[in-house]
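Revision sheet: structure tokens.
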Amino acid sequence: MRIAIYGRTTDDNTSEYIQLLFSKLSDYKSELLIHDVFYNFLKQKITLSGNIKTFSSHTDIKGNIDCMLSLGGDGTFLETLTFIQDSGIPILGINTGRLGFLANVAKTEINDAVTALFEKKYSIQKRSMLSVSSPKELFGEVNYGLNELTVLKKDSSSMITIHAYINGDFLNSYFADGLIVATPTGSTAYSLSCGGPLIMPGSQNFVITPIAPHNLNVRPFVISDNNIITLKVEGRSKNYLVSLDSRTQTIDSSIEITIKKADFYLNLIQLENQSFFDTMRKKLLWGLDKRN
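Predicted:
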């Protein structure tokens, strides 16, 4: 099996688990492509052996690998998407970070996860994504996100006004610190922390969640993802922030942002012992009695 591996350079205490991963992959005689920056970092931390090459861009792996492993937390997982792009390469997230909704294989489960991967004891879960367009093509060719697009104030403590339209029809003017447009996958991320609802993967929805709105009657709003959302921003400041997953750009009030469902999916590897409900219970501590 040909496997690409992406991770961040960190100084935390995960070397023994990463060593376990590479030793296990070596046992299966895997062909490995490691992101070049991460490879140079790993050489100083662990012992690497076997058939190993490096990659630096999405063109190095497209059509050349069977799956991608992301080592880190959910932020690392989102960065991995910039290499996957629309290739359809399935991703397995191994959590050496903190919470890990996307990177939901615990570092203590690495041995079993690699075995399941090679014995094909997994399914592919298709996660919908959103794409973004604007006159300045803010995010270039990688103009899509798995979690959310967020508009935020930048230079002032004053609120901004985000005018939102759905298919050209006016929805609302949000007087707030910002606005989030999230996918079902992103419903467990920033949107959730701002009071948005949890949405099951595959629900084919967007959730529009205001950030600290002035009017408390303005609540998160769920719409079908076959709609096109347009955002226009104004306020006292000249500049605003637009974030697409882990990437951020600065815009001014002349920029109009259009959001729609991407025309491709992310293929997420889900092992046999995993489910969305199980992840919710574990990560959100549902049913945990804190009185003991």
